[in-house]
Amino acid sequence: MTFAWPGLTGEFRQGWKIILGCSIGIAAGVSLLFLSFSIFILPLTSELKVSRGDLGSVQALIITAAIGSPLIGRMTDMFGVKRIYAACALAVAAIHLWASLFANSLFDMGLTIALVGLLGAGTGTVVLSRPINAHFKEHRGLALGLMAVGVSVLAIMAPPLINLVLELWGWRGAFFGMAMVSIFAGIPAVLLLVPDGGRAGSGIGKPAAASTPTDRRFLRERDFWLLALALITMSLATAGAASQLAPMVQDAGLDAATAALALSFFSAGTFIGRLGGGWLLDRIDPRYAAFLLTLLPAIGFVVLLTAANMAPAIMLAVTIIGIQQGAEIDIFAYFVARRFELAHYSAIYGALVGLGWIGNVGGLLGMGKTYDHFGSYAPAQGVAIGCLVLSSLLLLAISLPKKVDPA
Question: With DSSP H G I counted as helix, E B as strand and the rest as coil, what are the percentages for the chain, rounded to 5?
Answer without folding.
Answer: 80, 0, 20
